[in-house]
Amino acid sequence: MAQPPRVIVIGGGIGGLTAAAALHLSGRRVTVLERARSLEPVGAAISLSPNALRALDVLGIGDEIRDLAAWSGDGGLRTPRGRWLSRSSAAAAAERFGGPLVLLHRATLVNSLAALLPPDTVRTAAETTLLDPGDTRRPARVRTPDGELEADLVVAADGIRSAVRRALFPDHPGAVYSGFTTWRVVIPVPGTEFAPHETWGRGRIWGTHPLKDGRVYAYAAALAPAGERAADERAELVRRYGDWHDPIPAVLAATRPVDVLRHDVHHLAEPLPAFHRGRVALLGDAAHAMPPTLGQGGNLAIEDAVVLAHHQADLPAYSAARLPRTSAVARQAVRVARLNMTPNRALAAVRDTAITALSLAGPALVLRGLDGIADWRPPQRPYASVLSGAGER
User: What is the percent of the chain where pLDDT is above 70?
Assistant: First the structure.
């Protein structure tokens, strides 16, 4: 009896695991090759908007993830002194986009995706090199620590510095520095209650959000030279944000230096000509890395995965489906970064005044910013109904 076509997924992050699960459910024989020694993700939390949750419905885990939503009340944008610029609510978000916004630890999502795969699907400590992208007449080939492998389809989910992307498109300039760096922590903060918020200063932002497990996810971003690092990143956060509104001082007080992750932000300023070549498809940050200002990097990777599974026999159709959407969202993310990271005092004042005025006239800015993004639906059922928010099964 012939074996099903083989798929190799390079990269065991969220995009790679989603693609592996979607392709496995479509009947493919999948192998995931992850260069790290475990699937434990580098990072803190991830925000999933209704577009990604509908994609996860295709895999059968959308409702499982929706149940992790912790935001049930009001939230919004604030100034460093605590004044609300814009208020929004979980109910308004669900009504506008047909489902909730869910914030969860990346490890939780990775575990849920990995559970969809057969045992031994994932090979860790497996540094992989693309040898040949293949074509209609020959399979793609990769080199692994255990030797060469052939595949009918190779999915490159190897991140922002994708070696596969460089091999497929050697003339593309690659990722560029976005001009700012980020810090992230996930910690318990006993005795602290707050409305989830993002705070915009001049050249700096801060966000504080509760998780379903009782911990707090906090993140910060600031304009900084590329590669700059502090001897003590917690002390650096205190220096930059210690005098901002509550609960930021309490979060900083509960943070240890070891809790802080810091990463510079890079993005693909020039879109790729395609997301495929031969039998190889790119997805997630390997295809369209963008600033995190819309919270859509992981969401679009999840979208990519289910669309790729849908068009797995026609990779030009996959590129055609994904390039326009991801390029538009990436451009919007860059525009938002320029807005919320401006260091100019006068421009920041005008920005804050405009946000307040716009919010008084209609939906909060955070919701408007997701129009045309969070209402996306995958090309196949089951997925959540926009009108009812209930799962169509």
Answer: 93
Cα separation, 212 vs 219, in Å, equals 17
Given a contact cutoff of 8 angstroms between Cβ atoms, the answer to whether 41 and 64 are in contact is no
**Model pLDDT for residues 249-301, shown as the tens digit of each residue:** 999 999 999 999 999 999 999 999 999 999 999 999 999 999 999 999 999 99
Residue for token pair 């090309």: 379
Q: What is the mean pLDDT of the chain?
A: 92
323-330 contacts: CB < 8 A, separation 24 or more? 323/271, 323/272, 323/274, 323/275, 325/300, 325/376, 326/271, 326/287, 326/288, 326/300, 327/271, 327/288, 329/288, 329/290, 329/294, 329/296, 329/300, 329/373, 330/267, 330/268, 330/271, 330/288, 330/289, 330/290
* pLDDT tens readout for residues 69-118: 876 668 899 999 999 999 888 888 888 888 888 999 999 999 999 999 99
Kind plus residue range of the DSSP H or E element containing 33: strand 29-33
157 near 110, Cβ under 8 Å? Answer: no
Partner residues linked to 119 by β-bridges: none
Residue 47 near residue 102 (C-beta atoms within 8 A): yes
The two three-digit tokens of residue 376, written as one number: 């996306």
Classify strands 176-187 and 102-105 as parallel, antiparallel or unpaired: unpaired
Identify the burial level of 217 via C-beta atoms within 10 angstroms of its C-beta, where 0-12 means exposed, 13-18 middle and 19 or more buried. buried
- Tokens representing 262 are 């810091």
pTM check: above 0.85: yes
Name the E strands within 96-203: 102-105, 122-123, 129-132, 140-144, 147-151, 153-156, 176-187, 197-200
Q: What angle do CA 310, 315, 320 make, to 5 degrees?
A: 90
Length of the chain, in residues: 393
- Distance between CA atoms of 378 and 381, rounded to whole angstroms? 7
Contact assessment for residue 281 and residue 318, using Cβ atoms and an 8 Å cutoff = yes
User: For the residues of 59-127, what is the DSSP string, one character each?
Assistant: HT-HHHHHTT----SEEEEE-TT--EEEEEEHHHHHHHHTS--EEEEHHHHHHHHHTTSPTT-EESS--
Mean pLDDT lowest among 48-62, 171-185, 377-391: 377-391
